[in-house]
Amino acid sequence: MNVRPYTAADADGLWELKRGFELGIGDETGGEDKGPKYEAKLTDDYREKWLAWVDDCVAENDHCVTVAVDDDGEVAGYVFVLPASLGFVWDAAVLNELFVAPEHRGTGVADDLMEAALTLARGMELPLDRIVLDVDRENDRAQAFYDRYGFEHWGEMVAREL
């Protein structure tokens, strides 16, 4: 497995994993209406805007999106740490997303991606020396993974419809 910074050539593979990430959030956590809401947003327009945002983030720091690419050249996983300019959102480094394709889970790919994220975050100039992420309390697999890395609950996110 090759773990390296994302390039524009990875866009299709990254998008497919992003879809898997979003659909997993919708299906595996929350109420019955969460899945359809997440699926409905994954339009071609959303794809274009999201990939443009990825490009903007990568232009600021080429390591903020790291991909794991298998021997066939397929993107098997990714981690997305927001650039330091967005660190003031939570006064910390923000691990925006970490996702590994189901067929590559349990192979150490997530560990390699987490190490890349932590290395990047340690090099950032931040208000607090801390990395934060949002993980659903119902996502036991993710909870166990982050627990292994010493993540602890630090506040609670709440949301409401606009």
From TrEMBL:
List the transmembrane segments.
none
What SUPFAM superfamilies does this protein's entry cite? Answer: Acyl-CoA N-acyltransferases (Nat) (SSF55729)
Q: Which Pfam families does the annotation name?
A: Acetyltransf_1
Residue stretches making up the N-acetyltransferase domain: 1-162
- Any idea what this protein is called? Acetyltransferase (GNAT) family protein
> Could you tell me which PROSITE patterns the record lists for this protein?
GNAT
Q: What is the lineage of its organism?
A: Archaea, Methanobacteriati, Methanobacteriota, Stenosarchaea group, Halobacteria
Q: Which CDD domains match?
A: NAT_SF (cd04301)
Q: Which UniProt keywords apply?
A: Transferase
InterPro entries xref list: Acyl_CoA_acyltransferase, GNAT_dom, MshD_Acetyltransferase
Q: Name one GO molecular function term.
A: acyltransferase activity, transferring groups other than amino-acyl groups
